[in-house]
Amino acid sequence: MPARRHPTARQVRLGTELRRLREAAGLKATEAAGLLGVNSVQMSQMESGIAGVSEQRVRRLAANYACSDEGLIDALAAMATDRTRGWWEDYRGVLPAAYQDLAELDHHARFRHDVAVIHVPGLLQTKDHARALFAYLNPEFPDDEVDLRVEHRMKRRVVIDGPDPIPYETVIHEAALRIRVAGRSASRAQLNRILETSEADHVTVRVIPFRLDDFAGAGATMVHLGGTVPRLDTVVRDAPHGTAFVDSEAQLEHFRKLFHRVKEAALPPQQSRELIHQLAKEL
Predict the structure, then answer these.
(1) Within 10 A of 226 (CB to CB), how many other CB atoms are there?
(2) Is residue 18 within 8 Å of residue 47, measured between CB atoms?
(3) Confidence class for position 256, pLDDT limits 50, 70, 90
């Protein structure tokens, strides 16, 4: 398969998992290359996502690595053969690659868990809220550049608003609900959008109130996307110079526990709705 110039996060993840299986088997890259009849450069490209890998090769490698996790093998084989070209492809080369990577991860996720402390989660934002955020954080952007980002964010909502939504849970701090990102009327509309969305059976919204004692989770902001199998989960976090994708098993387990801890500290869904409703009435 020809080399890719810009592999997606999903393609890189496939290569990463193949490398992890090889390392767990105690084999060097040159030894694994010999099992497939390829050279070490080709093996390196497959493990970095630069080169594609066929389902047959995925299964051959898994067998030679003595991997007995059939669910993981099937999931990796599916990733290798996936040729989905979703709506996000229209933005490739127009917006930063992370925008497409996030949309693709959403599309393939089994579930999504968000923790938001300062900003309303992207999937729950209204157009006015999103536009105000993008314009404020990037004052040098012309209007059409801001519009592109808003348009992309609104389309990403299909994973919870569309015909085949995924289970979605979010924990939002009261701070994010009170900050008037786009003025009084837009803030009221934003709170109402959260309330309306929370009525869906597949959506659960919990709020961390200001009055909660002993909450030191201000740094807990994250997006946790469920993979086909738990090992293929991904946590997305904002980094100083872009978006960070976390996928090591130790880190994934850390963030699973962190989400559970924050979730347990939050108000139950009904009390959360009552608080959001009260905040909307105050505007």
Answers:
(1) 17
(2) yes
(3) very high
